[in-house]
Specification:
mainly alpha
Amino acid sequence: HACFDCDIGTPISALAERWPALDFGALSEIWWPQMEEPAEELQRRCAAFRIKAAALGDWRHVAVVSHWGFIRGLTGHDAHNAELVPFDPMQGSIPKDSIGAHATGAG
C-alpha cells in the first residue's frame, strides 16, 4: 500500500532494463497503488497471494521480495529491512486486527 515514500516502486521498463534476465511480464508498467490501500483490500490481496502461492508445487523453493506491510499481512510479523521471513501458504490467515492496524499506518 502506498502510505510512505518507500511504497513507491520503479516502472517495469526501468526494472527490465536493469535486470534483463528477469521476467516482469505479469506486472503492469506502474505496478504499485497510487493511494493508501484500505485494510480490507490488503486482506484480499494477502488471501489471493496465499492461494496462488499454495498452488505452486515448489512453493518451498520460492523467494518472495515484498514490503513490510504485505509481509505483516501474510505472516503477522513486523519484518526489518532485508530480513528473511519464512512463509507457509498452507497455514491459516492472519487475524484482521493484525492487518488493519498496520494498513492504516499504526504500529
